Structures are given as C-alpha cells and as structure tokens.
Amino acid sequence: MAKIDKIYFYKMTTDNGGAPCSYRSVLTLAICKPKVRSTAEENDWIVGFGGKDLEERLIYVAQVDHKLRDGEYYKKEEYFGRPDCIYRWDSGSRRYYLLDGKIYHRGGVNLEHDLDNGKALVLLSKNYTYFGNLGTSEYKGKYPEVKKHIEALKQGHRINHSEALFDELCRLIEENIVSEKRGKPSNADSCEKCDSIEGKIVVSSRKTTRCV
User: Do residues 193 and 109 lie in contact, with contact meaning Cβ atoms separated by under 8 Å?
Assistant: First the structure.
C-alpha cells in the first residue's frame, strides 16, 4: 500500500447513499460536505464514521483518485446515470438546475450549498470500502486514540497533533481497505438531511492535526 500522507475524518449525521455515493465500483462525494470536497486533493484519504445516531460505526474509507472541478461531474455524460449526479449545467442560462426525478435534495434548496458558489467540486474514488449498514464500532477496541477522538468530536472541538492518532488511522485504513464487505446505506430515507456533519472535520498528517 502506498504511503499515506493526509487523512480527513468526520462523523456523518446521515448515511443514505447520497454522500458518499457508492455506485458501480466508484465512490463519489458530490453533494453535501463542501469543506471536504474543497480541501481534499488527489491521493488524500477520507474516513467517514457515523454520528451518535449511527452508533459511531465505521461507514467508509476511501482514497481520492480524482478531483473534478468546475462542474465537470454535471456536464459529462459518463456521470449522468449516477444517483448523486442530481444537477445539470444549462449553457444557455449559464446556471445549474436540479434534475427532475432525482431522489436526493428534492426541491433544489441545497443547490448553492452543494455547488459551493459554482465551484461544483466532486471527489472520485475507486480505491475504497463502503461498509454502510454493515459497518461496526469494533475499531474502538483496537485503536484507542481513534476511539478517544471520535467520541470527543463535536462542534467547537479542537484537537492537538498526535502522531499516535495518525498511525492508528493509517492502520485502520490499511486493515479495512482490503475488506470485501459491502453494505447498503444505513438510512433508507433518501430525503433525510445529509448536508451537515456531527462535529468538525479533522485533517491529520504526520506533521499536524487540525480541524477544518
């Protein structure tokens, strides 16, 4: 496994298949989570844990293979069939609009939030494991630093750099990225709000650990 340099982790309020979206062996983060989509770059890792309502289970681990910019995700036909490709670019009016019949973010009220003032950044991963409803919190028994920070993570939380935390996150990724387990979304309701996180997003590297 290639060297890991930077890891983002956060607690999800909802896991309904929209953010992230695991579909046809590709995981995308296209809607919600604008801070992760704007700051994560190719080769970075993202680890999504459940919030308290999801029992702080491990939901997914993914390496960013490619970062699409300037609305490319909503302009190229190769992505049109994906469930989270819910917007389209109208070159005539030079604006994005919500497609009819899509199951996420109905009504278009999340458009500006999802597109982050027109940046429309989307992360793609082919190197990932999505556990969904099959995820567990068993990692807590093996990785005490991860357990401590996940349980403490909340709004306003500040985290000091810990090389032990980074090392544990690396091992957690390496252990779970090889798993063949593939679950379904934990929440069946596609309309359930998914545009918020429980706590802060934390980015950890060998040099520093900070909230974004």
Answer: no
